[in-house]
Amino acid sequence: MGVPQEDADGGDDRGHLPQLLAIGVVASIIGVVLALLIDWWPALASREGKQIDTLYDWLLVVSVPIFVLVVTVVLYCVWRFRVRPGQEHLDGPPMHGNTRLEVIWTTVPALILLALCTYAYVVLDDIEDAKGDSSLQVRVVGEQFTWTFFYRNPEGGREIASNRLYLPTSTQTLFRVQTKDVLHDFYVPAFRLKIDAVPGITTNFKATTLQRPGTYPVVCAELCGLGHAVMRQTATVMPEQDFEDWLAERAAEGGGGAGAAGGAACEGSGPATPDGAALFTADATRCGQCHALEDAGTTASIGPNLDESLQGRDEAYIRRGIVEPDADIADGYQPGIMPPNYEDTLRPEEVDALVTYLQEVSR
Ligand code: CUA
Hints:
There is one protein chain. By secondary structure, the protein is α+β, with helices and mostly antiparallel strands. It is built from 10 helices and 12 strands. The chain has helices at residues 16-37, 47-80, 99-128, 240-252, 264-267, 276-281, 306-309, 315-323, 342-345, 348-361, and strands at residues 136-143, 146-151, 160-162, 165-168, 172-179, 184-188, 193-197, 203-208, 214-220, 232-238, 292-293, 298-299. The strands form 3 sheets. Strands 3-2-1-5-8 form a 5-stranded mixed beta sheet. A 5-stranded mixed beta sheet has the order 4-10-9-6-7, with helices on one face. The longest helix has 34 residues, at 47-80. The chain is elongated and about 85 Å long. The chain starts with 15 loop residues before the first helix and ends with a helix.
C-alpha cells in the first residue's frame, strides 16, 4: 500500500482497486441475500423476539459485507500477487505506513460498532422495560439437572409445581429465575430470551406469548455439570381457557403433580389414573431420555439400563431410585445426574404408577 509501487507484473497498485471493489460488492450482495434467506432461528413464539430477530437481521446486513470484503481482498491478493517462477528470491516492494488509511480503518469500524451497540442497547432496554403488568408469574427453579416451574395457586394453597412449562397464549409472563445449586441459564430459544439462574439471587425477565399455541424447547444454556446436555424440557403454549383449566385442575389436586402423561392436561380432562408406561416416556418424567428399558422401547445410556439394574428388585428399592436417586448409585454411574425432584413434581399416584410399572417389566 502507500506510495504507488510497481508490482510484480509491473502495473500500478491502484489499478487493482476497481476490480477488487467490483468483486467485493457482488460477493457482498450474494452474501447478504444468502444470510437473510437462512433460517437461523426456530419458529418465533414471543412478541419480544420480533425485535431480536430484526436486530439479528441488521447485524447480518452490516457484518456479512465486512467479512466478505476482507475475504475477497485476502483471496484476490493470494491469487494476484502469488510468486511466479523466477521470483523466489525477490523481496517485495518496500511498504510504508499510510496515516490516512489507518485513520479510516480505525474510524469506520468504530462508528459501525458504536451504531450497532446503540441499536442493541435500545432493543435490550425496550425488552427489559416491557410495559404492562404481567398477569402471570412463574417461578423457575433450576437444579442439577432439571427445571421446575412453580405457579401461584389460584386457591391460595401451596404453589403448583410442574416439570413442563405451561403458558397461555397472548399473555405476558414474568419469569422469576432461581437455582438450588450451581449456575444454570433459563433459555427458551423460541422466545429469543435467556437469563442466568444465579445462586442466592432471583433474576427475571418478561416474555409475551403470541397467539400461537404449540410446544417449544426449554433448555439450560450454562454448562452446569455432567447432565447439562439432558437439562431440556418443554414449554407448551395453550389457549387461555385451557391454561386456566389446567391450573384449576392442579390446584384442586393440591399443588404438586406434573400430570402430563399422555397429554391429558392439555385436553383439560380430569385427573385419570396415571399410566406408568406412558409416564416413563412423558415429558413429566423424561425417564426414557436417559434410561434403556425394553418394554418402553428406549435405548438411552445416560443412566443405568433398567432391565438390568432393576431386575429382581423390590418396590421399596425402585421407589427410592425415583424419589431419592442418589441414595444408591449403580456401578459406573455418577451421582447428581438424575433430577432429585420427582417427589415434588409428580403426584403420589404417578410415582406409584411408575414403581408398579417398572417392577412389572423388570421382573
Ligand atoms: Cu443446567 Cu446446564
